[in-house]
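U., I forgot to send this yesterday:
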Amino acid sequence: MTSTDGAGTTPPEIARRGCESCHGGPAVYHKVESPYALVNGGRPPDPIRLTVGETHRLRIVSVHPDWRIAFTLRNDSATVRWRAIAKDGYDYPSAQATQRLARVEMGPGETADFEIRPSQVGEWTLEVKTVDPGWYIPVRVIISKPGSTRR
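Result:
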């Protein structure tokens, strides 16, 4: 004897259709990847430009409607360090505003602020990617000496 939903639908058919009347709620669908992920309004985004010896404030805002996003700032293959200074519009107390690895995971609507003070000229990468398999957007971070022109 095969079990049905009362209308003659078998469990495999129910699973394929996502039958609302069978389990009391709407069908559950897997996330569909958005092809419209942007960083600073572009894909690819313009480089971020920093100056050696200056303290820069980076504000990261996650406005993607569904995905958890990971942000990691790298110098070659190593993760650099930054100082976390605020979360969701609130400054951290001094005991929490600490140096840490430059990596943060954020969900929809979250913001985070960090300070970074580069000590040498070079090029870094801010990796912006979905936590679950999806998309990856590398952002060039160009660090120049004071007074140098844009390249």
